Amino acid sequence: MRKYFVPLAAVATAMFLYAPIMIAQAPYESTMGLVQKIFYYHAPSGMVMLVSAIVCGVASAIYLWRGTPAADRVAMAAAELTALFGLIVIVTGPLWARKAWGIWWDWEPRLTMSFVGWLISVSYLFVRKYAGPGSDKLGAALAIFGSVNVPFIYVSVNVWRTMHPKTTVVPSLQPGMRGPFWFSFLALLLLYLLLMTARVHLERQRTALDELYLAEEDAS
Amino acid sequence: MSPSLDFDRVTVDEVSRHFGRRRAVSRVSFVAPRGSVIGLLGPNGAGKSTLLAMLATLLRPSGGSIRYGTIQAAGAPPELRGRIGVLGHDLFLYPELTARENLAFFAGLYGRRDADDAARVALTRAGLADRGDDLVSGFSRGMRQRVALERALIHEPRLALLDEPFTGLDESSTRALVTRLQGLRESGAAIVLATHDLDVADGLLDEAIFLREGRMVDSLSRPEGLRAAYRRAMTGPSRS
Amino acid sequence: MIRVAWLILRKDLTVEVRSKEIVYTTLFFAVSCVLVFAFALVREGRGPEDGAAGILWIAVMFAGNLALGRTFERERQSETLRALLLAPASRPAVYVGKLLGILVLLFGAELLLVPLVALLFQARLLSHPFWLTAIMTTGTVGFAAVGTLFAAMLVRARSRDVMLPILLYPMTIPVMIGGVRGTVALLQSPPDTASVTMWIGLLVCMDVVFVTIALWTFEPLMTE
Fold first, then answer.
1. What distance in Å separates the CA atoms of residue A213 and residue B9, rounded to the nearest whole number?
2. In whole angstroms, what is the distance from residue B163 CA to residue A90 CA?
3. What is the mean pLDDT of each run of 10 residues along chain B (240 residues)?
4. Is residue A13 part of a domain?
5. Residue ranges per structural domain of chain B
6. Which of A4, A93, A81 is nearest to A50 (CA)?
7. Chains meeting A at 3+ CB pairs closer than 8 A?
8. Is A133 in Cβ contact with B21 (below 8 Å)?
9. Comparing C-alpha atoms, which of B170, B126, B164 is closest to residue B148?
10. Which residues of B touch A212 (CB under 8 A)?
11. Count of B–C CB contacts within 8 Å?
12. In what helix (H) or strand (E) does residue C74 lie, and over which residues does it extend?
């Protein structure tokens, strides 16, 4: 991954520069007009967030049962990025809703589910930062529970919300929109991979630094 | 208690343990055979408690290995823990239970079918047969120590690990504990104890291991004149 | 395994019966909780619609958080949790023992809370005891299963008092949704048994999954 980093970063930059052009050229959605275009950030971010949550869960399971330090680093990075992309989702969501339907928050099932998932990822970060010794294992258990919980959160929030009248209608994609949508998704996914690489690398450097300290102590 | 899980010696082989950047134990090696008393001596923070925790299988070493006979500590079955008895710094007693209830509970936990009898015997050994039905919260430090010791030994372990067992004991309790440990040694247990109390340890230990900042700076067989040896070990260069 | 779990449960109950500290404080807290909500939400003698169910479950979760914290604080005092881990018992058995203890405590609290909430909010909670028991049981088990694991993990951590709710509440949101919505469905007249059954089914799924994962992860979590 290392040697592809710079060329891929260049590709990602190009994609991000081109994306607004694609988005501007995409057809206007009938009811919402210009505002709907925020969807090209909102929905792919949600998908990347889900991918990241699964990565975190799997890495945590590997770490908990095999003790591979690399798995712990990946889990940590994935959790941070889950929180980041989750933040994008829950900020763009209300912005879109406000402009499109006049209210900030209406407990839409998927948005609410993302919010809960985001809370769990933030609680993971709190644990890693503040819980002191043993927090790596604590976090791992949290991530495993969190990942497994995703379907439960989805089902329960969904059923809970279907009991109330729906005010949102997530549009099914018009053909002209599919291109920009998948393009945005790929751009964000690429960004995610690059950020993961950089973050895991940072963690690896931290571990290496600890080991140097220990080696130094041994030598003295 | 399955006899197949017995062992005749505990081998500590280049064991290290670090917490982040802090090295708690660094490349310590020794052997604790049956019927011997090994002393871990050193100042606070030398790594004695960490080493004992690793011997108790509560902590995994970051480096090196611990073997109980031929059984590796890593991946050992839970039955192995049934052959190890631990007296920790914090005594592991429930203050809201009576002495008898504490002993019976742990006896049951360690698989002794005759838990109540075992508790009775242990109480007598601790010299507290008449206080058996009093809550532990009302005991003095010395009495608690005695109950805690019997709790640690109630399942007749092959390896006894004691962390500062002489803390807060008066003269007679100390002598009683020394006698108990000697009896334990006669019956074939391996005892590893960490202590500051050099005068008591003098004459009790079969081997003394001096730890400083996690490292083994010296080890003596059948030591005498521990105070002088300790001073030498702590101030001189490492001799290992 | 069952023997060990039973020993631990019996020990916990003995300790609790002697001091009754956790029982009294948890019950008192739960009742205060309900009262706070009552004063905040009741207007002109009537609570908000569906309020009773929500308040009941909130009180259970808050009280449960408190009870979990206190129970494991006790085990931390003389490092007795370590002593339990040192025993040759399988570690999941220790988990089950502690879980059962917490469940006994929470069920006891619910025995008090349900009539209290029914009284204060004129909710006919007690008219379908079988369904109510099913909902309360499955919901409480889900909450307690996650809570016992997290509380045990946090025994040696820093900031454990504030960490437990931070970890526990987001994770148990689906359980709360299931419990509250199931109870609300039960309170309709006539009760919406289709929904109740559905929520109970969902809660049972959650319980099975959570307990299974907890049993799997308890061992690697407790060794350092």
1. 34
2. 53
3. 71 87 87 91 87 90 88 84 88 88 90 86 86 87 88 90 87 87 90 87 86 86 78 69
4. no
5. 7-235
6. A81
7. B, C
8. no
9. B126
10. none
11. 74
12. helix C51-77
**What letters, b where the CB count within 10 A reaches 16 and e where it falls short, cover B180-194?**
bbeebbeeebbbbbb
A57 within a domain of the structure (yes/no):
yes
- State which residues of chain C have pLDDT below 70: 45-47, 49
Spatial distance between the Cα atoms of B194 and B30, rounded to a whole number of angstroms = 14
Say which of C3, C19, C86 has its CB closest to residue B56: C86
Pick one of 3.30.70.100, 3.40.50.2020, 3.40.50.300, 3.90.550.10 as the CATH number of B7-235: 3.40.50.300
Task: Return residues 45-84 of C near B (CB < 8 Å).
Answer: 77-80, 82-84
Looking at the 3D structure of chain A, how many domains does it have? 1
As beta bridge partners, residue B26 has: B215
Structural domain boundaries enclosing A89: 45-167+183-219
Instruction: Supply the pTM of this predicted model.
Output: 0.88
Query: Cα-atom radius of gyration of chain C, to the nearest Å?
Result: 18
> What is the length of chain C?
224
In contact, B143 and B137? CB cutoff 8 Å:
no
- B74 in helix, strand or coil? coil
In a domain, A133, yes or no: yes
Domain chopping of chain C, boundaries: 2-222
